[in-house]
Design a protein that fits this description.
Layout (H helix, E strand, L loop, with lengths): L2 H13 L7 E3 L6 E10 L2 E10 L10 E5 L2 E2 L12 H4 L7 H14 L3 E2 L5 H6 L16 H37 L1 H6 L4 H24 L5 H25 L1
Antiparallel strand pairs: 1-2, 2-3, 3-4, 5-6
Length: 244
Amino acid sequence: MDRDFILAREAQLTYSNNAASGFNPVGESLVRWQGTLTYTTNRGRNMFTFEIFLPEYFPNVPPVVTAIGWMDHPNIDKDGFIQLRILDNWRAEFHLYQVIIALKNLMSRVPPTPRGETAKSVRDTMVRITEPAIENRDSRSAAETKALRTELTAKNAQLTAKDEELARLRARSMMSSEESSKTLRMEVTDQQVLESERIAISDLLSSLEDRYAAGEISIFEYSRLYKKYTKELYLLRKQLEYLS
């Protein structure tokens, strides 16, 4: 199914559902949605902003829900990713508006608080809706689980850095082989450097799809890198257009 059609359908369903009101696209794109929720507690009235990103393979993969700004909540990790039951049990027939409703319901039950203002006693009484894929259900201790997750995150970061370095080396090698006679007679131009970077980022995007399909990275890591690489590619293309 055409991606533009899928995104347009999700927008129509979201706008027609009153329970999902308050969330709107960021700019002209329908892949990023933001909404601000207001909660009044004994600590006062606070406003919090959330973002929902629809990855390229949506609806076959779940959206990525993040908190914008610093806030404390038992279902928000240190990087701002929000854990929801609907995301843990995602099915292709689910929709954006259902994610928004689930997010609103969660935050209504346990309102977030500005970072640093949550008292320990309050945190201790909050009930966390854990992520089945991450929560350890065997005999492994919580400390071992945390250490394992930290190690896996570090290894993924190392692999990503190596992939980026190799992609750039391959791109430079390709540029050198195609224009070897020219590069022997003249200095490398800004345009050649940018073109090399463009090839490298395009290669990284292709590699990213393969890594996700092979199950080597999580949907959160895929979405983070996808946004990073597409933004870099867009900026490189604009620079090349300016130089040409």
